[in-house]
From TrEMBL:
It is found in: Membrane. It catalyses: L-seryl-[protein] + ATP = O-phospho-L-seryl-[protein] + ADP + H(+); L-threonyl-[protein] + ATP = O-phospho-L-threonyl-[protein] + ADP + H(+). Residues 29-157 form the Bulb-type lectin domain. Residues 1-28 form the signal peptide. Residues 513-794 form the Protein kinase domain. GO terms for cellular component: membrane. The gene is LOC100828381. The chain crosses the membrane at residues 459-482. This is Receptor-like serine/threonine-protein kinase. GO terms for biological process: recognition of pollen; response to other organism.
Amino acid sequence: MARRRGRCSAAALWLLGFMLLRGAPSRAADTVAVGRPLSGRQTLVSKRGKFALGFFQPDNSRQNWYIGIWYNQISKHTPVWVANRNAPTSDPASSQLSISDDGNVVLVDKHDANKAPIWSTNLTNIASGSNTVGIILDTGNLVLADASNTSVVLWQSFDHFGDTWLPGGKLGRNNRTGEVTRLFAWKSFDDPATSVFSLELDPDGTSQYLLNWNGTREYWTSGTWNGHMFAAVPEMMASNASPMSLYTFDYVEGKEGSYFVYDVKDDDAAVVTRFVVDVTGQIKFLTWVESVGDWILFWSQPKAQCDVYALCGAFSACTEKSLPSCSCLRGFRERRLSAWMQGDHTAGCARDAELRQQCGGGVVHGAMPKGNNDGFYAMPGVKLPSDGQGVAAAASGGECEAACLAKCACTAYAYNGSCWLWHGGLINLQVQDTGSGGGTIMIRLAASEFSTTGHAKKLTIILVVVAAAVAVFSVLVLALVLRSRNRSRVRAARRVEGSLMAFTYRDMQSVTSNFSEKLGGGAFGSVFKGSLPDATATPVAVKKLEGVRQGEKQFRAEVSTIGTIQHVNLIRLLGFCSDRAHRLLVYEHMPNGSLDKHLFRSNDGHGIGSILSWKTRYRIALDIARGMEYLHEKCRDRIIHCDVKPENILLDGAFAAKVSDFGMAKLVGRGFSRVLTTMRGTVGYLAPEWITGAAVTAKADVFSYGMVLFEIVSGRRNVEQREDGGAVDFFPSMAVSRLHGGGEMKSVVDGRLGGEVDVDQVERACKVACWCVQDDEGARPSMGMVVQVLEGLVDVSVPPIPRSLRVLGDPPSYVKFFSGLPSI
């Protein structure tokens, strides 16, 4: 029996050994070594699983593959370093990362007969016969080290930054050679090739960091180090509640080199952060927030995107309040359309028609060209580029124009008492907000860009021919339409522009049972309940738009734009109807209706809907902020809502909030005065600039959000008649007074909650609301900052009391203030 047990034990050990050998990985999980290359879908993962290295494709890229490092423990694929950023490979299966015969880490294509490396660490001082390995560390650093002693680092990716500066990395300067390390932005969102934007420590020896364009033009500086912070970055001296307090900062200056380094104070803390030179040319400090599933920005420079030098390239204008921020000037088109669509605008724009270039003769005066001469068109309200050349001899606008026409290279001029000329590509032209001043620049164009009699005649002939063809085509289409009307009435399954459904007006009558159940109404029209004729009878909300003046083509284009906007906190557009004069939108149905029904009491003192707990209210406030942040900061075309109020905040079955009616200003067109008049009737949500007639920006929405946030806290309208029937009661003034007076913040919360609130969140919400309703729109935070504060990532001080709240808090002043508003 003993012998048999021994044989069994030996067999078990043999089997276990075989299984272990068979199941053993072909490589150390974090190491590439001789005989153990990395190829295809294989990855290296750092010991604690923080970072991974392998082949990847950027978003929207279908052909190019890169070897890179990315975060391994977050849900969003975010590369932090790319080896072959300027030399992509087309097939990861035929490419491999390995240790070459000379000890370097190399990327090669196995099918390349020459076996020339696509990328290499490119060291020439590795001792012959050395055994080296490549290791990915938990810092995100790839190191080439001696296999027998991996602490001997021969090369590291932290000395060859990409666009990202990770904690522990040293961005600095070799004081002996003068060589500096740089961060280079990606060329576009799906192209990691080096861009013209870079960050570096001043090569001239000072302690300031510089943002440069093309290595020649500085457009931002950190200021010098004073021992605690950089002069232009006061955020480094942040309070303990600020995200900056999570990090240590140190600037080291020595004989060999100078560098700046930052690190996370608690290495065990679940903090994932990165510092990046963005595609936009801005530097950004971001932290990963898992509950949001995205990177949260808490610091960036320069603050204004248009302050990035040559962001839009030549003959393009930058507009701060729109995304994309770059647009070609009249008479110009995108020089590299594919790159432009991917976010890389640096190539700028090219002329549609070349200049005649009359040098020294045939001078033309005035705004319109004569004959075949070059002419000018006026572009007002711009911040003029700083590289203009003064012409002292030109004493009038006509002489200034003549001076420009006399030079072949002159592309624009401006006269404001002095004459300025611009030559070559027009760089750094910025469109100013309406009412913000700015000058007028005259852009030089070829004569063919202007209307002439000859062109008008040709155009008339073309239009007549086209009109005749359209008439014939319309008859044929009408015949087909009449024939198809005998078929199914509801053709909702017809999809256009992606996932949107196109309906006829009869379809809408059928879906809504002839508009029999009205859910509500507002400035832009009435909303009716309906159900789609599908297998599950999907409930929908159908909005009949009023006051729309757009033609069908323009309306469909705007609807298509809005239809592509999808966010968990924005109401989803399912379809539309553009049938003769009828304009309708079909949205997902929100079973819990609008926020106002749950916040405000009815006339008999009872709540119209269910009483929302404080936890639900705070989540709703955060939901709204995230939806507004998306509209303002993350849409390709920035959308200003123009009518943020509880009636336009809808709640789904779980009381998650979704912003509705966004994009209405686009749909009803520029001349929506009737809508604005109606909106002005919604007392209590309008920013001062609406009333004064000043230019309206996204900060008007921020003001409205602040007013809504006050109402979420109080559970009542901001403006209410007191119970004694006397003076008007203005809640925001009372809440702000409590903030400044150090009063009990529980007392400002809806009394129906019985004091069951988080006092810290109440104080935070009131601070945010007060900052949002500042008189000066420049003092109001962005919606992105609002989200960060409500999430507790950023702390804010008690804001000053806005003058408007002082006025509105005084009943006689309040009545006087609103008595001047337009009547409805």
